[in-house]
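> tool_call: predict_assembly(chains=two)
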Amino acid sequence: MTDAAFYSTETAWCPGCGNFDIIQTLTKVLTDMHFAPNQVLLVGGIGQAAKLNQYVNANGFSGLHGRSLPAAVAAKMVNQALTVIVNTGDGDSYGEGGNHFLHNIRRNVDITHFVHDNQIYGLTKGQTSPTSDSCGDSPHGACNLSRPFNPLLVALAAGATFVARTFSGHKEHMASVMRAAIMHQGYALVDILQPCISFNKVNTFAYYKQHTYELEAGYDTGNLEAALLRSMEYGPKIPLGILYQVTRPTYHQQRPAIFDETPIIDKRVSTEPLETLMARFR
Amino acid sequence: MNLCIGGAAGDGIETMAGLFEKILQRTGFHLFSTRDFMSRIRGGHNFAQIRFETEPISAHIKALDILIAYDSRSYDEHQQRLKPDGLLLCDPQLGIEDPRTLAIPLKTLAKESGNARTIGVVCIGALMKLLGLPLTTAETILRETLSPSILDMNLVAVHKGYESTVQKQPFAPAHHTESMLVTGAEAMAMGALAGGLQFYSAYPMSPATTLLTFFSAHAQAFHLVVEQAEDEIAAINMALGASYAGAQAMVGTSGGGFSLMVEGLGFAGIAELPVVIADIQRPGPATGLPTRTEQSDLLFMCFASQGEFPRMVLTARNHVDAFYQTARALLLAKKYQIPVLLLSDQYLADSAATIPSLDPQKAAQSVQPLPEQPDIGAVYQRYTLTPSGISPMRIPGKTEAIVRIDSDEHTQEGTITEDATVRKQMVDKRNRKLAGLEAELIEPAYTGADEPEVLLVGFGSTSAAIAEIVALLNQRGVSIGALAFGDLYPLPRKQLSHYWPLAKAVYSVEQNATAQLSKLIRMETGLHCTDSLLKYDGRQLSVDDILDGLKAFGIGKEVSL
């Protein structure tokens, strides 16, 4: 299997966009992990990041803005044999889709969520995103007068079982985090810092290079308090890496009466249970 | 025989009515019962109304033969409907002075039986004696229904009630017929199971919540994924994700929840994802009257969403229809890869009726499936242009090919495009499905005179009451007929074009304020109704209401029920 199995085609992204690093890294990771294109389902909402699945040779579900998570978890619910990966933006994931973000953390369906977080609305040409920096920290056209949303802190508080951050400019780091996220059993959130070269003139490639650091060797990913503290670090020093990972029963594992190794879509129901049920009404 | 049981929320009216209905069914009666509940957990005024006859019935009437009043308010609310020779059953403690009163110390007898909460079963005992029904049937139902820990006190209670009065009605035991006693919601849920349901997502909302609880209770036996979503937007998008992945998916809600689902409806339309959306209507707009009934979502269902795409709107006219139409909705959604909207309402969903046994096989075969198309391997286009507009559907992971779907306009491969030619091709492809849908339509059921001078048109849950009044008027020599629509959009037109020219006047009978069926008919056929008989106070049109309304149009003036 080569990267060519998950070929990339011509895209609608701006030249130099961080998305190119993300798609190249993701296709490499999928190839290295020996997935076949028909085993992988890439789900997106709406936005430049969400278009990623259009450019990868894998099953693709391009849904509604903000609604990628409900569709992704449901596809996994009925067929756990699919490897389901959501690629979509910060506005899609944390703004329009905020309620789904909160509640799918609780469900812990075994899917992976890559948020391409460029801290701005790119496709609609430069509006404030939930994760745009506070105007107090870095006043610019799309800064947040309201308090910025901290996705990692919220995810930890809501009980996420895998919470990580990486930077599209560090391809090796991104690859290792992506791989760990895909392998994680349960909902895995990876917030991927990514420059928007057209509209975000503050959080640039150089900005992220300068302001991020990798979690030190020996960091304990099982320590929730430590993870909470690290998730609140932002500004001069932004931590990259797996902040928290814990094993907890997945959505499927919590429902042994409904799910076994046979996916729901492969189960066949005979007429007998319905006849039995209907007899109760006689 | 028409019986009403009234009291406060929390008085156990639902339990008592449910037990008594089961007893009536087992005795061999046909029955139709309704519930009138306020949107609260305790207090207020709730009532159950049970109509039972030796002939099949499927609508409610107003005049009462028996009123059981747990409190004074129940007497005040309903005593006007109690016939002069009717019977008021209540506790003497209420101090009601009415010549129709049969005072039985219900509370005392219940306490003597071991628990004040057996009051309903004391009433059942009294009813068994009054109506000349076999006490053993009541005992059998109690044994089948109640948990062992409370059975004995209830058996005592039913005896105490039975001994507390004397037989008033020599009710001949009805001819026993094999029947099922189901609510509209139960019939709809079982229809969904017969139609192959695999995934159900919903956010709790009256009066659709009964579907969610039913599916949850039976998820294991039917390998169903039942998910309570965080909101209705999640519910529809989950259903679409499951549908894409190969599961037969359905959501259930009421008008407010459907409002949130509308973008998802359009997504199902453009992405060609099969899904059934059940709307158990209640009066709107916004929160409206949460626990009451209306048929005011019809036009919203037909035209909701931006853009243009084929859809089908079906409704259930009665409990039997609720079963078969729901199965059919799932099968049609799958065959045509479209959203199918299924309309019911609080009245039908919450009312219970005895019906002939339902046939799951018949339901599962109600739509002719498409011939299987061979999987041609990796060369696959999800949106292949075809004469029927239906493209072969493959399940991701179950084929060598990859499967792409898109909420954007897309190419045959399923990737985003802004190409003008492809856009037009795709709109035309989707709309070509309409020809197939037209061929699937079930024409409205006609009842009445062969060449009616007066024609009524109605849809959904009012159909049974309309049919009952038509039958009565026909017996009294009135030349009248009625078309009851189950399939609504696309609008079936054959029966309309046959009967409309025969009639001198055509009236729509609807549970809404703006005559939506009349408008839909005019839009699709150019035919204008003479007038409309409308009710929109949240309470269902009864047989009496329709007769009164027709009298106002000068029809059946001499007739009474």
